[in-house]
Amino acid sequence: MMELAEHVLSLGFALSEHNASGGGLSPEAASNLQGPMAAIGIGLAALGSGYAERGIGAAAIGALAEDSISTGIAILMTVLPETLVILALVPLFI
Question: Where are the chain's structural domains?
Answer without folding.
Answer: 28-93
